[in-house]
């Protein structure tokens, strides 16, 4: 009996020790290796209208890469809603993919985990050097003063999409250039029984993208120069209020949009129910929903006064997707080759055409396909009037905290509750208190 | 020719000792067998529950943020600071946790109460056989059988402000509301969450109570009827007291499931639930995986575990005393 008990105790102790070792803190090691040079795992973010569309777009390119290098790429397309959690899990366990897409706004946050391969001069030289990339896109690859944590893959910018027929019916000759003009046009459109402007009031990311631009236009920043949250700055409060007021006061955004978070506003626009949409690179999405390219026009996002430009005339965040390599990859050379392949001129043209985005690679951007009037607006915005979201380690938390505050303010507006400077300040104060200590 | 090729000198010398030895070995084997059979379950239990729990407790004493998640063992010790932050109700983190706790308590009490009430009523109603009882019973169990995600996402569609069935019925058809309501944002989100939770949970109560009813002898009802007891009296005097042991387990299980429910609010509202429906499970998820304060999230989880242990222990103590008293 004693022997059996001893055996049981031994087995349990061993299992505990094994488990503790297995759970003992992920991958402390990891400068990468070339232990499995013939395979790569790639997590692509969901860029197309569906995961199936992404597989159709990327499949032939990955086959091409295999023919060129003999390396088989196992593709997994991860929906946006899961991507950050999946990356975090992979970071903790050390069992991640070799190469992955990240939202460019997460670059600094993920850089802080130390899980991504730094793109120092030596690594960048392997893919053609830093100078191949557009500056604004490089600005969203990690914290200032550090080696980039990723390289730009697809660039996007916000634009104002407007329905030509609805505008003509309302007697509006050209798209609005300022917010005042947008509100005035919105009233004319509403008088014709159509909804004026769409928004995704319950989408934290969309909220952040818009209030960031409004803050820039008010000459304000959500973070101080040394990276501390500064959400209750009066100018920031004014900026957030200006955006929410498009629903609360001006009523150009319908109250129903306060609960939108699944791109319903894009569907409303595609179906002709709504005249305007502020979106990034929406062409492929609209096409997949049956809207002809002739039916809509693309103009720069309005500014407070004048025309878009640098400084307070910023009208878009630098949107886009970056390509990163997990530091503990078992195919470091293959991963670098894959990044080189995906950022090559040829692939940049193919992929960015498929996703209606703009290549962050200068030489690919020169292709005629990216010179159409629609793409010219996006390209010009990226070059002259877009700004990168704060590249601070707590950027991801900022998106959640402030995105939620704006979502709650939209909920108040939708319910008919007053949105005041005080209520906006209180919501932002709560958001700031939730931020981790820097 | 001999049948014994080899002779054991010990056994030959003492045949009684050999028999005793065999019996002793047999006894050890018999006594040890249950432990041996339990061993795989014990090891798995340790791996699946105990080890993560211990790791969680260790994490709650660490300053674990995105800077350390790649190798959480190197995160600096922070003593009780994660606990202090969690229970400092004057500061935003503690205040939000307290708010979330009260929302969860209110939600749990209402949901468990309604699930039990509807489940019991349905089970009592289904006690007598009638045409179509089997079909109705199967229909009642549908919400319990459906995958949670599919069921809750259907409710998301029904709660939509502009095109949802709920507003269509309440506003367009029955004219009960002045204007279409928002169910997935704002204050009404609590009622949306409660509705889905009760819809999902009552069939379990129904199933358990129905099983409990099978054990009540029919003679009790016949005797009561002969004594002139009406339906309500029969329910009050026979059904409910007989169901007491079943109900004790049922309420406890429903309480724990509802208090810790993560799937329903997460699918309904996404990773950022409205304040009115900010259940503690999603709140802790947010603290850990959305704002990346894993240490604070772990401390909150430990506090929740302690709370549930105290509540469950007290409940079991009180109910077992009550049972002993009634048995005595």
TrEMBL record, chain A:
Signal peptide residues on this chain, from the entry's feature table: 1-22
Keywords noted in UniProt: Signal
Record's protein name: Extracellular solute-binding protein
Species for this entry: Streptomyces broussonetiae
Taxonomic superkingdom: Bacteria
Annotated Gene3D superfamilies: Periplasmic binding protein-like II
Keyword Signal attributed: yes
Pfam families: SBP_bac_1
UniProtKB/TrEMBL annotation, chain B:
Domain ABC transmembrane type-1: 101-315
GO biological process: transmembrane transport
Keyword set, alphabetical order: Cell membrane, Membrane, Transmembrane, Transmembrane helix, Transport
Membrane topology: Multi-pass membrane protein
Electron transport found in the keyword field: no
InterPro entries named among the record's database cross-references: ABC_transporter_permease (IPR051393), MetI-like (IPR000515), MetI-like_sf (IPR035906)
Transmembrane helix is among the record's keywords: yes
Region (Disordered): 1-23
Residues spanning the membrane: 32-61, 101-126, 138-158, 190-213, 242-259, 298-318
Any Gene Ontology CC annotation: plasma membrane
Pfam families: BPD_transp_1 (PF00528)
Localization terms from the record: Cell membrane
PROSITE patterns named among the record's database cross-references: ABC_TM1 (PS50928)
Similarity field: Belongs to the binding-protein-dependent transport system permease family.
Protein name: ABC transporter permease subunit
